[in-house]
Specification:
Four Helix Bundle (Hemerythrin (Met), subunit A); disordered N terminus
Length: 278
């Protein structure tokens, strides 16, 4: 393994004209186009904030800085785990990479849960929607687009995690495809039920009705437990896998996307939230 690892260059590819692996070059090209897309959305928000129309609500009366700061910290920590996952697969440590990917997925889901809670609070309690004011239109479009990018990233991470269990001899293990489908279903169920339970728990805590949480969400809790148990059982495989140091470029490309999403959120957090309190 050590002699094989020295022959792999994770940063340059002599078979390409640019010296950059095609997958990484394609990802950089996509991210460049996404920079222009987010630049337009952020610029539009700033223009309307500098010249707000009459009757536009004040962002200070709408925003929740502690919640947004917490979700920002969570997303930054997910970038650290993503970097550790890339480092692990470059050293051929698939098991460590899986743990780091799971942590990144977990933190990404926490960020999405915070965003769903924030949007719900803005619409139901603050009465700001995407159509009743300019602030709502630019804010929900910008942050909602970023949230979609995070959701796509979580899905990509999940698929990469499941891909790491592909057996070296797929023909000999005909149950691989069915097990992969069960893995995907289990992940979707676990993530969806967990987000639902967290949001419902926070809602009941604010309404001082925690006593009825277990009765109200008994089925969701049972479903989440079954999903986590199923995921644990599906990961118990001792056969050789067709995933290792040679797949580092795939994880690196995914890491580039995830770091880009985090950098964009830092800009959004600074421009949309923090500037209102300076």
């Amino acid at each position: 393994m050590s002699s094989h690892a020295t022959t792999i260059d994770h940063h340059h590819d002599s078979s390409t004209t640019t010296g950059i692996p095609n997958k990484k070059l394609l990802m950089w090209t996509f991210l460049a186009s996404d920079c222009m897309f987010f630049g337009c959305l952020i610029s539009t928000h700033l223009i309307y904030r500098l010249h707000p129309p009459p009757g536009n609500p004040s962002p200070r009366d709408i925003f929740n800085p502690p919640l947004t700061s917490f979700s920002t910290f969570i997303l930054l920590m997910s970038s650290l785990l993503m970097a550790l996952a890339v480092n692990a697969i470059q050293r051929g440590n698939v098991r460590s990479m899986r743990h780091m990917l799971l942590g990144t997925i977990f933190f990404g889901c926490i960020f999405l849960t915070c965003q769903v809670y924030e949007f719900t609070d803005f619409v139901q309690d603050k009465h700001m929607t995407i159509s009743n004011c300019i602030l709502g239109s630019t804010f929900f479009t910008l942050t909602g687009t970023h949230g979609c990018h995070v959701a796509i990233g979580v899905l990509w991470l999940t698929l990469m995690y499941i891909r790491s269990f592909q057996p070296a001899n797929v023909q000999a293990d005909r149950r691989w495809f069915a097990r992969s489908l069960l893995h995907i279903v289990g992940f979707i169920a676990a993530i969806g039920l967990s987000m639902y339970l967290v949001l419902d728990f926070v809602h009941m805590a604010q309404a001082s009705a925690l006593s009825g949480f277990l009765r109200h969400d008994a089925l969701a809790i049972a479903g989440a437990i079954v999903s986590y148990v199923a995921l644990n059982l599906l990961t118990r495989t001792h056969s050789p896998v067709d995933f290792g140091e040679a797949n580092a470029i795939d994880v690196e490309s995914m890491g580039l996307y995830w770091h880009f999403v985090d950098i964009v959120w830092i800009i959004i957090f600074t421009v949309v939230y923090l500037l209102e309190y300076i």
